[in-house]
Design brief:
The longest helix is centred in the N-terminal third of the chain and has 31 residues. The strands form 3 sheets. This protein has a 4-stranded antiparallel β-sheet with strand order 4-3-5-6, with helices on both faces. It contains 16 helices and 10 strands. It is extended. By secondary structure, the chain is an alpha+beta fold. The protein is 48% helix and 17% strand.
Length: 487
């Protein structure tokens, strides 16, 4: 019909026919896939009310299972974060993925741009649709009429239904209780998983039998077996039987590592990588001690985020909570000592390729205070552009402040007064040119940029100036950017 209307208006040509042919093929495969999948579900599910529910569950089953697995591993295993990677609704979630398949229009000022996306998946979906159809036909021929009202009509699928419901629901329930009450106790996770799992196990059996009389010796034994196996899996995770917690990349395998928390750095040379590797090893070895001390909330804790980029282009992420000890020998103390080093601080401020950078300008922003007639005050930002020559001098002053230990890049460090107690002057923004790529260590995506070498050459370093910057303040006054002694 659309082609007929287009032909009357003279809008049909070879390209239009090609696009409509591709569209028709795409829609045909999509409809056939979903129809065959729905019929296949219907052959295994006798209860018409349960059909749409299970059909929807199956469409999201892969992503849901990956989410539960990733969340439970993160909850039980020390430091493991995003261990199970999800594809963001990939081919195994067709109800979402099909939105990305086919002809895509991109707006352009000169002419529309059309591209085809994920067309290579259509043959695979067509094959799966045929398989669904064959399975549905085989199930139909062997289906007994007396099972028409059952939730599951095939006996060998019933244990999978019981165990699947119990595993998924108990895991979600344990996660919900954990984050509701902010508890990290492994015992509480085990109790939640066991109790919720047993309850859901028998609820599932009630749905299968359409009866509340399900507490037979056989089902009780099966439930006990289920509980032992599931609890055994969680205990194995907690004891790190698979060695997931102890896994630390060898320094020779590491291309770079991003550290955030207490210290921000992108370690890319041999000395920095070796230091990070040593700190990581100490954290892993102190697992039980750190878990106990961070759980009692009697002292301040610090989250440490590590993202490794390996030389095979893969990544590994770990996230730890460690106690903020006062001693220099502690992990936190070692991190603070290293963070206070001149080169580490400068690289955090001006990028990892310091000193091979160029300062070519900047901006000075301070707040001017105006008293209103009613006694209130109005604050307005006053912005002034800084020349290249002045910016270079201010850059040298910043380096001198860092070299003399007047300032450290993170206001949370213990040997620095809280920034709330220090008079504030304004913000100095220096324009940085880095021919090798400006990598901001505060950027959570810095490893992705480093892997693809996609960082921009131009960047900006923002410095909130207070009284700690003695050399910088002196230079600001000398160049005329500060006219008062006090902010």
């Amino acid at each position: 019909m659309t082609l007929a209307v287009g032909a009357v208006q003279g809008a049909v040509n070879a390209q239009v026919l090609q696009y409509y042919g591709i569209w028709l093929m795409t829609v045909f495969v999509e409809n056939l896939f979903f129809f065959c999948m729905a019929v296949c579900v219907l052959m295994f599910v006798g209860n018409i009310v349960a059909v749409p529910a299970l059909y929807l569950v199956l469409n999201f089953l892969y992503e849901g299972c990956m989410f539960i697995a990733a969340s439970m591993i993160q909850a039980v295993c020390y430091g493991l974060d995003n261990v199970v990677t999800m594809d963001g609704f990939g081919v195994l979630t067709p109800i979402i993925f099909f939105r990305r398949v086919g002809l895509t229009y991109h707006y352009d000022y000169e002419a529309p741009v059309y591209t085809f996306q994920h067309m290579g998946t259509l043959p695979g979906y067509l094959i799966v649709a045929i398989v669904f159809g064959v399975i549905a036909l085989a199930a139909y021929e062997k289906k007994h009429i007396e099972t028409a009202g059952d939730v599951i009509t095939v006996n060998w699928l019933k244990p999978i239904f019981r165990w699947g419901m119990a595993i998924c629901t108990s895991s979600l329930g344990a996660l919900l209780l954990r984050y509701t009450y902010y508890t990290k106790s492994f015992v509480s996770i085990m109790i939640s998983v066991s109790v919720i799992g047993i309850i859901v196990f028998f609820i599932a059996q009630m749905l299968l039998d359409r009866s509340i009389y399900v507490f037979t010796k056989r089902k009780i034994k099966e439930c006990l077996l289920y509980t032992v196996i599931i609890c055994g899996c969680y205990v194995a995770l907690d004891l790190d039987i698979l060695g997931l917690e102890k896994k630390i990349p060898d320094p020779d395998e590491i291309a770079a590592v991003h550290v955030n928390g207490g210290i921000r750095m992108l370690a890319a040379n041999e000395e920095e990588i070796s230091w990070v590797h040593g700190i990581h090893r100490q954290i892993v070895d102190a697992k039980r001690d750190f878990e106990r001390r961070t759980a009692d909330h009697t002292q301040m804790n610090q989250y440490i985020y590590l993202e490794y980029l390996l030389k095979d282009n893969s990544t590994m992420i770990r996230r730890y909570e460690i106690p903020m000890d006062d001693t220099k020998e502690s992990v936190f103390g070692q991190m603070m000592e290293y963070a206070g080093r001149e080169e580490v601080t400068i690289k955090e401020m001006f990028g990892i390729h310091y000193p091979d950078i160029e300062i070519y300008g900047g901006t000075w922003i301070n707040e001017e205070e105006t008293r209103n007639a009613d006694g209130t005050y109005t604050y307005a930002g006053n912005e002034k552009r800084i020349s290249e020559a002045d910016a270079k001098q201010l850059y040298e002053a910043v380096k001198q402040d860092v070299a003399d230990g007047n300032v450290r890049a993170d206001g949370q460090w213990k040997d620095t007064k809280g920034t709330a107690d220090i008079p504030y002057y304004g913000q100095l923004i220096l324009d940085v040119r880095d021919e090798a790529g400006y990598y901001n260590t505060a950027n959570y995506n810095v490893i992705s940029e480093y892997r693809s070498q996609s960082a921009m050459k131009d960047g900006k370093t923002t410095i909130s100036i207070d009284e700690r910057y003695t050399y910088l303040l002196e230079k600001m006054r000398e160049l005329g950017y500060l006219t008062k002694k006090e902010p």
